Amino acid sequence: MAATAVAAAAEAPELSDEFVQRFQPIRFEPVPFAMEMPVRLPQDINGRHLPVLSKSAMEDIWCPLRFQQRRLLKKYGHSSVDLLAGNAGEAGIEAMLDANLLRGQRMSIADALDIVDDVWVKTLRTEYVDFRDERPSVARDQVKVCVRHYLKEVVPSIVGAGWRLVALQHGFNEYLAPHLRWSVNGVIDQVWHHPETGLYQFRDTKIRRSDMQAWRAHRDRQASLYVSAAHRAGLLLDAFYFDSYNRKIGTLKVLRTTRTARAITETWATVQSAVVQITTFNDRLGLHTPWPMTLDHEHWRCSQAYCSVWSACPRGQVA
Fold first, then answer.
1. In this structure, what is the dihedral angle of CA atoms 18, 19, 23, 29, given to the nearest 10 degrees?
2. Where are the domains of the chain?
3. DSSP letter at 221?
4. Is the pTM of this model over 0.85?
5. Contacts with 213 (C-beta within 8 Å, 6 or more apart), sequence order
6. Which value, in Å, is the radius of gyration of the alpha carbons in the chain?
7. What topology does CATH give the domain 78-266?
8. Residue 239: what are its φ and ψ, rounded to 5°?
9. For residue range 131-152, what is the model confidence (pLDDT) as tens digits?
């Protein structure tokens, strides 16, 4: 697998006046909410108000029933092989990046691959993972191929282009309004800085059975929230990068995406609408009456293969 495309994607852009002006920190005014925002999020099965709306929780909001079952009733269901692949792969990658680029220590790729094996084995001992039609050992080896390529080819190309790693798993909290008792939070996998240009870039590594499509990267809510966090912190952001592996065939797709101030404002408006929706369902139906399921049955997660609460869904019961 050649790294030329990755190196080109990671190169720092030339700083024309237009570029500098375009990437100046965006100063956002408070989002003008059309509806009154709930001060608190609903209570879960343990009687605790949800303190945050995480990026993964917002991915569940597309289906109210899924949000109720997973976030409030704590019925997460089984883990998928892609979730295991992502967790194990990221553990190996981040361990080596942390040791070699942040702590000044030495870790080999072989050591990083051993960490992939450790996470894989420990997860299978404690959780049920649905491998569907895949063999666990084959899937693990696919992940290790991707991790080896990322550490041997991709990381050196990023460093060679002048970028320096400054943080791993960098968390943030965003509040839509000062009086709210909840926030939106997230964790940025990798934060890189280019000393010569002063730019930052965020990178997120995904190791799945299929790679991410460009249209999805440009619409991804995760990238929108993280770019918003960068702007609010006053960072000059180059872009958000998805390093997306198709582990089945061992190929890498590097997707570069940015957001305008309007796009970020629209994202916050979507969050507002979703919070109002789940609060309304909770007030009217409560915890133990099933909430409506999604009307978007063409969504890729709306199937037995990808929805962990499929057994609680009317579609799953008649399938």
1. 20
2. 78-266
3. H
4. no
5. none
6. 21
7. Lambda Exonuclease; Chain A (3.90.320)
8. -175, 170
9. 988 999 999 999 999 999 999 9
